[in-house]
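pinned: reference chain
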Amino acid sequence: MALEKKDVEAIAHLARVAIDEADVEDYAESLSNILGLADQLNSVDTDGVTPMAHPMHMVQRLRADEVSETNQREHLQEHAPAVERGLFLVPQVID
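pinned: its C-alpha cells
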C-alpha cells in the first residue's frame, strides 16, 4: 500500500505532529514500507501454529511464599488519625 502526500499530511494532523513539507515524501515512503511489511506478515499461513506467550520455553523460578515479617499493623496504626477494623480511614475525595 503506497501512501500519498495527502495521506501523510492527514496522519500527521490526526497525530498532532508537525512535519516539514520537505520531509513528507520520505515519511510517505517509510510509512508505505511499514504497511507493506504488515501486509507481508498478514499473508503468512498460520493455521496449525500453536500460539505462545514467549519464544523461549522456560519456567519461571519462584521462591516459596512464606511470611518473612511479623504483623505490625497495630504498631503502624497507633498514630493514624482514623482507623476502623484494622483499615486506615481517609477523607472522601470523590462524590
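why pinned: Residues 5-42 form a domain with the Histone, subunit A fold (CATH 1.10.20). The CA atoms of residues 7 and 79 lie 62 Å apart.
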